[in-house]
Write a structure and sequence with these properties.
The complex is a heterodimer of chains A (113) and B (110). By secondary structure, chain A is mostly beta strands. In chain A, 0% of the residues lie in helices and 51% in strands. Chain A is built from no helices and 11 strands. In chain A, a hairpin with a 2-residue loop joins strand 5 and strand 6. Chain A starts with a strand and ends with a strand. By secondary structure, chain B is mainly beta. Classes of the chains: A mainly beta (113), B mainly beta (110).
């Protein structure tokens, strides 16, 4: 059972570069979300989607874009990486909008130099 | 803004002891969830308690919810070394977004 799969696991970017963090789930979940985790800050919501074709901003959306063309995939794009985006990124999915448990990927550790 | 705030932030206990963590929140909620995160891994769901529930059990876990005080507690009984992890509470509010606290680090000493 794959669950939620994130790639890559580690990434180093130079300031100004762009990249896409991939997230895929095989549980046919409607709700998917992206969080970033920084020391002492817990998890902060970046963007989320309640279904294919529908996305919305979370708590810290600046500098990130998302799209949801299929139920399975929810990529997160960094448009022009900045050192402040150095963080661990987690993708999560659930069958409803938080009514049930969320399933998390293993995370992507991103360093921007 | 962070919805949940866990207290205490770090806890070190001997194997076999009980571990208690608290979480407070600020706005009305639909449910409150607890997650565990082992070092370098993703979060794993432990237990969910709805706003109309006061207590819930799952194995060695006991969760309470006091909506009048906007607080919850997670009790792990008879702790094991494998319980060493960070524990997060998360609240689901009216905006249907899951908001996480900053986490409790628990170390269980064998």
């Amino acid at each position: 059972n794959a669950g939620v799969t994130q790639t890559p696991k580690f990434q180093v970017l130079k300031t100004g570069q762009s990249m896409t963090l991939q997230c895929a789930q095989d549980m046919n979940h409607e709700y998917m979300s992206w969080y970033r985790q920084d020391p002492g800050m817990g998890l902060r919501l970046i963007h989320y989607s309640v279904g294919a074709g529908i996305t919305d901003q979370g708590e810290v959306p600046n500098g990130y874009n998302v799209s949801r063309s299929t139920t399975e995939d929810f990529p997160l794009r960094l448009l022009s990486a900045a050192p402040s985006q150095t963080s661990v990124y987690f993708c999560a999915s659930s069958s409803g909008t938080g009514v049930t448990e969320a399933f998390f990927g293993q995370g992507t550790r991103l360093t921007v130099v | 803004s962070q919805q949940g705030e866990e207290d205490p932030q770090a806890l070190s206990i001997q194997e076999g002891e009980n571990a208690t963590m608290n979480c407070s929140y600020k706005t009305s909620i639909n449910n409150l969830q607890w997650y565990r995160q082992n070092s370098g891994r993703g979060l794993v769901h432990l237990i969910l308690i709805r706003s109309n529930e006061r207590e819930k059990h799952s194995g060695r876990l006991r969760v309470t919810l006091d909506t009048s005080k906007k607080s919850s507690s997670l009790l792990i009984t008879a702790s094991r070394a494998a319980d060493t992890a960070s524990y997060f509470c998360a609240t689901l509010g009216g905006n249907n977004r899951l908001a996480f606290g900053k986490g409790n680090q628990v170390v269980v000493i064998p």
